[in-house]
Design a protein that fits this description.
Layout lengths: L14 H10 L1 E4 L5 H17 L1 E3 L10 E3 L10 H4 L2 H11 L3 E11 L7 E4 L7 E2 L3 E7 L10 E3 L14 H6 L4 H5 L9 E3 L6 E5 L4 E3 L8 E10 L3 E2 L31
Antiparallel strand pairs: 1-10, 2-3, 3-4, 4-12, 5-11, 6-13, 7-10, 7-12, 8-9, 8-11
């Protein structure tokens, strides 16, 4: 990735986070969102899941993870978090590329939902052609190991191609597809990343990751903003589902629904 981050960006992180992201495919940035702001977003996310929630997952995972059903652009209350200028600025700094928002959803893993989230990478499930896709996982509560923090496979974005599995086959074997497709990843190192409320992890869509079950007495609550390249094109594969019926295959993403980070930083 070539660094095109402007020197007058509204927020910049230490170079060590950029280095970690580009070397390992992910990074953990503590305290990116202030405590009072996190408390406000936590309340909004819980209310939104309660009023518009569904079971999440790619099939066969077993977890009762809940997420918002409608796209973020149908929830005015979530717009500010999806367009968070600090998180967006960091995403562009890490990738060194101009980005736009692709999606944003709140997620809740309730107490004693002890089933881990399956091992997966995000690119297989992303109906886009883009030079880069990156997810920001925003912790809205403290997430220690026992509450189901993320676990990453460092360097897994450097695996030989193809980087995208067949979506239909992956749906049929959701719990095993990743290691069946890329068996060498099963034996690589794994990095567990507990986080505090307001911390944000960023990972490339080609990085393998999972999360543990929630064995604690409190819900695990997070918000995931997905960014894609500013030049991304909608290109669904067989098995892809997407809620935006206005998009046609081969169509560039339009700015009003998929805003460029430069428009809100």
């Amino acid at each position: 990735m070539t660094d095109t981050t402007p020197k007058n960006a509204p927020y910049a992180v230490a170079e060590e986070y950029v280095t970690n992201f580009r070397e390992y495919g992910f990074t953990h940035i503590p305290g990116l969102i202030a405590a009072d702001e996190v408390a406000r977003w936590r309340e909004i996310a819980l209310d939104t899941i309660e009023s518009d929630g569904r079971r999440a997952g790619m099939g066969g995972g077993g977890t009762a993870l809940r997420t918002t059903s409608d796209p973020w652009w149908q929830h005015d209350s979530l717009s500010g978090l999806v367009r968070h200028p600090r998180v967006g600025a960091v995403a562009e700094q890490l990738t060194g590329m101009p980005l736009r928002v692709w999606s944003g959803q709140a997620y809740a893993k309730h107490p004693h939902d002890e089933v881990p989230t399956i091992w997966h990478e995000d690119l297989t499930w992303t109906p886009l052609d883009s030079p880069v896709n990156v997810n920001a996982w925003i912790a809205l509560v403290d997430v220690p190991v026992e509450r189901g923090c993320l676990v990453f496979l460092p360097n897994s974005h450097k695996r030989p191609g193809p980087h995208r599995a067949d979506t239909v086959a992956a749906k049929s074997n959701a719990t095993t597809y990743m290691f069946a497709e890329w068996p060498e990843l099963e034996w690589g190192p794994r990095v567990t990343v507990p986080v505090r409320a307001g911390d944000v992890t960023f990972h490339l869509s080609t990085v393998g990751h999972s999360s543990g079950g929630n064995t604690s007495e409190e819900a695990r609550l997070a918000f995931i903003t997905s960014y894609t390249g500013a030049t991304a094109v909608f290109q669904p594969r067989p098995g892809h589902l997407h809620l935006d019926k206005d998009l046609e295959p081969g169509q560039p993403l339009f700015d009003d629904r998929y805003p460029r980070i430069s428009s809100f930083t």
